[in-house]
Amino acid sequence: MHIKKQRLLTPGPTPLYPKALQAMMGSEIHHRTQDFRDLYSSVLGDLKAVLGTGHDVLMLASSGTGAMEAAVTNCFSPGDRVIVCSAGKFGERWVELTRAFGLEVLVLSAPYGSVVEPAALAQALAANPDVMGVFVQASESSTGAAHDVRAMGEMVQRTAAVFIVDAITGIGSMPLDIDRWGLDIVIGGSQKAFMLPPGLAFLSISPKAWERMESARLPRYYFDLQREKKSAAKGESSWTPAIALILGLAEVLRYVKTLGMDQLIDNAQQLAAATRAACGALGLELFAPFNPSGAVTAVKAPPGLSSSVIVREFHEKFGSIIADGQGEMAGRIFRIAHLGYYDIADLFALVAELELILIAHGVPVELGRGVAAVQEYYARQKQLATV
Amino acid sequence: MHIKKQRLLTPGPTPLYPKALQAMMGSEIHHRTQDFRDLYSSVLGDLKAVLGTGHDVLMLASSGTGAMEAAVTNCFSPGDRVIVCSAGKFGERWVELTRAFGLEVLVLSAPYGSVVEPAALAQALAANPDVMGVFVQASESSTGAAHDVRAMGEMVQRTAAVFIVDAITGIGSMPLDIDRWGLDIVIGGSQKAFMLPPGLAFLSISPKAWERMESARLPRYYFDLQREKKSAAKGESSWTPAIALILGLAEVLRYVKTLGMDQLIDNAQQLAAATRAACGALGLELFAPFNPSGAVTAVKAPPGLSSSVIVREFHEKFGSIIADGQGEMAGRIFRIAHLGYYDIADLFALVAELELILIAHGVPVELGRGVAAVQEYYARQKQLATV
User: Fold this and answer.
1) Range of the domain at A326
2) Residues A243, A169: one domain?
3) Which residues numbered 129-188 in B keep a CB inside 8 Å of some CB on A?
4) Residues contacting B364, CB < 8 A, separation 6+
5) A386 to chain B: nearest residue by CA?
6) Chain B residue numbers touching A342 (CB-CB < 8 A)
7) Last residue of a domain, one of B236, B258, B280
8) ipTM score here?
């Protein structure tokens, strides 16, 4: 057995930012002290700055799904009609969640690998003027496709509906102009572009959404956003906060501010583009070629080879943990992530490993060809002459 | 600015083993307690097992050079005649050290990149029957060359001299049969194949060396090995031990025992061979082609390009810290390390980066060609069919 470093390379949890992990060791503090209130206020402020929004930003001790539930329970009343734009596993989660709380759900669905086109939403909104909310994924990480939330937001803005965007893998992997595009609630999570372990969720909340909450009657307690807003104003969380993660987040936000949020996004998008170039060079087919996400690239397994085998061999042969397809896509696609703490060296190694895995299964690839495609992409971006 | 992970890829300090770093957080213990004594005894026992020796093994809170000094001051008396086999910067350190303590030093030197041949030592030993000690580097990490310590040890064994081997980068990168080859003192350090930060040094000490210490009269106090041996027998160190590093070492030794010391060595040697293959494919010249070390490969900078520029660009462009030449070799060679916590994915990325650096300076390399050489080497080792 040789040395195989374990490398976490999935679309979430993503690779951890080492200085954040170190900062998490400082957790021996109490959350009802002025020191913590100062930390919490500063983290919320930095989060708002990094998200580039004037809207309120709140934080919850939960996974992203908790914040999704908060959006549902805080904005709606039993029987409200809503539209869910669903193009994958996470779209289906919106459907389940809204139905679980008794909303009347109109599902606009697109096949896995495609997206719901803004035109379809326009039509549905026109036909259903009583719709109270629209739900979507900015990046559908089960398929590697990205929705045009800008076009959608501008439509929903002109209606009474609130536009609720699961941007858990969208934040930090695609531009999101929250305020201008009419994104009323935007949801994020710590284990994505924020380079932390799971356990923290974030929401930005527009004035339109706050106004809606005045009349929304679904039951809520732990995820009561109005209460959370009042606590946040005092530098506190309503319930016990995830202290270690908040300490880590402070460190990540310092890093992201130094890097620049635009550069974090560009980093993911360039890694995604280089990954697509490598797939092309290796004759691999993309699962979502037309609306590719900057967060994750889903690649079809070559004929006769299960993606589950590819994923298993990444781990067994090289220690790399990448993502298989989810649900019905398991065995059919594997997913290479780009959002958060990834760099070009990660991709060099990953593509070299992929080539060796393919060749071991008789897939005719030329060794080094995919890596060269990544290098060529990199050289073009940096305007290096190549020979 | 995009994300660039800092990757420590030098021949020392080497990349850190994450579980060891985590274990170092448990340092809030006291060293004069039974808990610590149990830990210390067990670490010394594991170290002995991993080194595969029946000799005593001791540990010092110092860098490797401290253990080198201990070997000198504990084994010799003023004016003793010794032979130093010197083939680089670390050979020169033996010369400086032995002279600093008033020994009469006969230097057998080989040009940088070469090694002192066993035949030269045989001749010197025959001509100088009064020699009390022979010093050498198992792996001369300033040049990437390895000495034939086996042949040398078998010669010294037949004389009254003690054979003192700086194996700081040799342990874990080459086979060392300490007991059978007549290696009287073998020196190691935490920041090499032991995957830890610097601050711990180790020595194995043969009965012949212990016997010599009875009469050796050089002054010593902190590095008094006889005192240290008595302390170790009680599970203690003579002076305050480097507690965090010892906790980390316990974790590393657990890992190395699971992996197998032979596999740790094979890992380094295969990475070294694959690196040489990549250099060949890229038209780069090796600095020590004939006696290559498994610890580190020194590569000549291509004509007209300084290795210091290559090293700087690894860091600036990709965040990778590799080693330049030392002393007079700065600017002329760069060094790629293999010993300790390195894996094939590290090498894939490093070679891809090297190709891009070379091409940016007009060195005619085909992108992906060096990576492919590493992949082909890997595939041959694993007996994968390649297309």
Assistant:
1) 7-13+260-381
2) yes
3) none
4) A387, B283
5) B359
6) 3
7) B258
8) 0.89
